[in-house]
## 1
Amino acid sequence: MMHKTSLAASQTPIDIDRRNALKLTGLSIAFLWGATSGTAHAAMNARRQSSDAAAAAADGNPPFAPNAFIRIDSNGAVRLVMPTVEMGQGIYTGISMMLAEELGVDLGQIKVEHSPPNEQLYANPYIGGQITGGSTSTRGQYQVLREAGAVARTLLVTAAAERWHVDPSTCTVAHGVVSHPGSGRKLPFGALAKPAGALPMPAKVTLKEPKDFAIIGKPLRRVDSLDKTRGATQYGIDVRVPGMKVATVKACPTFGGRLVGVDERRTRAIPGVIDVLRLENAVAVVGEHFWAAKQGMDALEILWDPGENAGLTTAGLRGALADALRNDKSIVAREEGKRPADGKVIEALYQLPMMAHAPMEPLNTTVAVTADKCEIWVGTQVPTRCVAGAAKITGLPPEKIVLHNQYIGGGFGRRLESDSVEQAVRFAKQVKYPVKIIWTREEDIRQDIVRPMYHDHISAVLGTDGRPVWFGDRITGGTVLGRWLPMAMGKNGLDGDLVECAAKTPYDLPNVKVEWIRHDMPDGLLVGWWRGVGPTHNLFVVESFMDELAHSAGKDPLEYRRALLQKNPRALALLDLAAEKIGWNKAALAPRVGRGIALGEPFGSHVCLIVEVEVSAQGEVRLRRAVVALDCGIAINPSSVEAQIQGGVIFGLSAALYSGITVKKGAIEQSNFHDYRSLRINETPQIEVYCVQSSQPPGGLGEVGTAIAAPALGNAIFAACGVRLRTLPVETRLLAQSAEALKQVVENQAEGRRTPV
Amino acid sequence: MIVLRVNGDEHSVDVPADMPLLWVLRDVIGLTGTKFGCGIAQCGACTVHLDGQAVRSCVLPVSAVGEKAITTIEAVGNSASGQKIQKAWLDVDVVQCGYCQSGQIMSAAALLTRVPNPSDADIDAAMSGNICRCGTYVRIRAAIKQAATGKAEILQTIAPEGAA
């Protein structure tokens, strides 16, 4: 943990309006709350810090290391240290562009490095910790990293100007070379590294005006593309250290259950099996290679004590949520005005499932524990949390925990947890050799820290013109923040993430009451951050419901929203742009084809998605087209922006169509990609992204597409076949045109055929 | 001892006959570009070529390989199709986390060898066994077409100076 937990922290008042003004989501709010509590608030700095010398010394001791991000060697090599981690979102490219823009180098001249765990040097100022999450990397670092580049450039120019006895303002910088156009003299950065490294820090630096950007705003190729295209990138799972063995693990499938015992005789007989290791709730088999470990695990006879959750089912969990919604006291997140006594009341119950993350790279950690050192190789979104966990487990001081972060093969929030790393350290400290522990996909799904399930009652009172004169949302579910960073909960016990994008919407809603009924899952069933967090949940409910209101008022969903956006020109412009691009109401659509709109302002960006679907007579949904209008402020790299939106939308559509984790006998029922489905290329529509030119500060991106996907899909399905989906994932049987058509689906499934659309 | 021909080199490996080729490549030979994603041939991250045909190495017992030539992501660029696919992948910047991309590229290269100018239906048929959780499918489709035709299909990225 980067912050010391203090009781005072939870008493820090922060009102909802301030949070909305900051346009942050739950995860980032969490840290700001911690930050305002008076506890240490770490934040990176453009200039040299006290722990910089040691960090640079450990990084090859370059002659020029003016801050934690830039290293220039005498041979001219420019190395950039990445404060947040790359898990696909393109942040290594974005960070490189921000640094290089001001430093005066081309992306082809740089080499990127993972940062070591160090809160002082690498904490994102938005979240007060060295954490990659909450779509905050660009927003939090845009200012400080450009400044870091400018500090370095200023020093290099000063060194050159001193050498030439000229005014620094007469020098120019480009392509890693300082030039003096007046005299035609030039010096490359390498030649200036040593003298520049001896200069004092400049007090003030000037940043470029956006109109002068040479790098920011261009669709530059990702810095990690070449290696990833050649299979040369090292992910955590690819780490190989001398003497290393490979293990796989199985933890008790029942939430909170315990290991009673194992019979390892058959396992020991398998060639290549080296060890069988035990923890209180898990077992590991170590082998010469993964296959030996896997075979050994399959041969192991394990006796579990399932514990108190042995009877748990999805229906039971859902029922408890429904009870809580009916009977439990709520925490009010926002209340304005009063509910009128008269008017047409519209209300609905929305139910969202638990979901797994299923990143392509299964969880893995490589650990070497000796008497005085613990070395860890892992791709993690929370390196300092992993260090703290390992220190506690090994009893070693944190400085004896050496963590090497790695490229991440998909995070989606799963690698904001350190459970798999801590488990690996517990196993590794039992043996004398380094061990790489790889979770199977089955373990990855069954031991996921899942997105919570929700049970929301949403309602509105409509005036005679059909506009909502009152809007109410009673959100019921468990808290992620309450476990992950309890000190960040609001003074009244509110988890800000739970109400994000519900407490404040883009619309002009005069009277509002948004409340949260906290209902935590049973002990042992952990819930965690999942791409898009609060907004993914709330935007589905709110934007589906806006559609319901439009239909109830007899209005076109586009026109209904337009009327409520007259005070929000930024959102209105996006709505109109998306409508224009898809040709809303321009031509009649074929039978059982429909389009759905969703609009939202998640993660400091503004987005409108329109999805077009066809629903077959059998109820199968085919995605035909998707159009996104986006205003994310300054787009650092338009290619990355498009990729994040397309990918985010696909992730969200995938979840809405297929992803649901269910529980039986206290254990997750799904286990692999056959029963925890993902969208495949043949099911993916064209996704057009239209990005509004903006000079506003950058908004978040990584989760925006995901958060806006499900409501557009649900609204499109309604438009196509008249069925309002208030429960996810989509249930095909609800969409079938007739019993006969549905029978065909069932027969096809029985014979393993896909029903054609 | 089993003798494997991998990327033009012979490797003698002392492994169980039922060991999937994936783990022989990764844990014994040390070629880690081929990825583990599911272990049950559902995701395609482990795709390699056997005599140019795309196969899922996570379920292929090493004893079933026989004399066939194994090509992995590390060497697919030596073939004309592989080279075209890798170039198109860079030109439109397909990758995100990149973990599935070895498998995507192997499937795409095998497709392009078989069908030099693939239709959308050909692409769907050849690529639907490869899951990408980052959702790079739109660019994968464009990159395959671009590799086939040489024509820019979508937004092209600007290559770093001095890069290929």
## 2
Amino acid sequence: MSRRGRRESVPGGDAAVRTYHLSKSYLAGQYALHDLTLEVKKGEFVFLTGSSGAGKTTLLKTLFAAERPSEGQVLVLGRNVGRLSEPGIAALRRRVGVVFQDFKLLTRRTIEENVRLALDVVGTPRREATAKVFQRLKQVGLHHRRYHEPLALSGGEQQRVALARALANDPEILLADEPTGNLDPELTIEIMDLIVGASLRGTTVIVATHDWSLIERYAKRTLRLEGGRLVEDARAGTPA
Amino acid sequence: MKRAGVIIAVLVRTAGRGLQASPLPSALASATIAIALILVGAFALVVGNMEGLIERFSKQLQVVVYLDTDLSTTAQHELLLRVGELPGVDHASLVTRDEALERFRATLGGGELLAGLEHNPLPPSLEVELLPGSRTEQGITAIVSTIEGFAGVDELAHGQQWLAGYARIASLARMAGFVFGAVLVGAALLIVANTIRLAVYVREDEIEILSLVGAGRVFQRGPFILEGLAEGAVGGLVALGVLYGGFLIFLPRLEFGLALMVGSSPPQFFAMGQAVAFVAIAALLGGAGSALALLGWRR
């Protein structure tokens, strides 16, 4: 292991995510995240909730290294995000799947090509990748539409494609930022069931949502943020 | 190794898709490179041919030392020895008066014109071949000034002045080519860079998504570099084709002018190796334009 690799790598134990006094500010004195200390264990399912501007998205962005902490530390899969180099960030993101509210699909590529992107970047051989893409699309019930372009699909279907892409590489962590924010209640349950399915297969899942009906329905550990601070950590089965 | 092959294939596919998605800007970049290289290539052809001629003439360059007509045979041989031993001289040979007349007769194609000649008017001479290192303006001047001081020497003839003048013109043309070429290549580089920068903006979403799924620097930037290389190579091939076409079509019409510039030997087009290098340079130019566009670009 290189010296840089050693420095970035910190023993994580059974934690998938750890933050120590994490703060993020874009303007001096104004915090998007403030003194956040938390831990998410491997295989755990966690809801991240709070009102708009509470810091949910900023926290998720920090976890997949789209933002660097202003203060404190963030360890994701034992890697210190604040110290990751560009290749280090890429390597981390290959182990972390991300789903967004706006899907982030390439509209001029087919569904299959969109999902394949995640496999291409790790150099998966073509035949193996094709089989894996088919399998993932089958999992989300869209294998029969793999040659369609995203805009030919409904919002729920597009989100299922995004989910298939996020799960294509069997990530250790799945981060979902308001994954059902644009969907009707029926599709919301459909997507959430798929996410919970990934959790049951051992993936650590963190879902940011402000939809309390989901939190109540799935009864998982819930972290509530307000003004960038962690104000509540309700364990699974306890009222949030 | 297999993984690298897969990654290269993906990069090539992505670059191909990028070129397909923006054919006009890509064609513009190729055309710019082609125009720049046509002009630079034309200069290179002219200068190359002039330099080839200089090299050929330099190899044949000799000093002819005309001796006094009444110089005795012994004195002629003494001079031959002295000249042959001068530094910078490869060897010298004596052309007697009879041999000179014989050559003159052969040049005229027969002896009819010289039939009425009562006596041989031609002087004996020494033909002095120079060592390669002395076939320069300074080398010839040094040898000529030494020989001029020898008794029995009447006159010296050498192509040094003509050659030096011609070399100066070639050097001027080369310098103009460099300056002109640098300006054109610089302009082409900037246009390619702007074309690629435009492509980067157009495909920013794609790059963002690639970055989110863990694509590293190679995946994000590689396709753009490949696109630049491809645009450059196409531009180079077009330029080469146009130059060759021009060489075949316009050469007969420019024969007189070219004869003045490159002498009587037929002008040469680029050799195969040079043509390959020409296209490779064009490709590198495109790649460099892409690299310039991506310089400082960071997601």
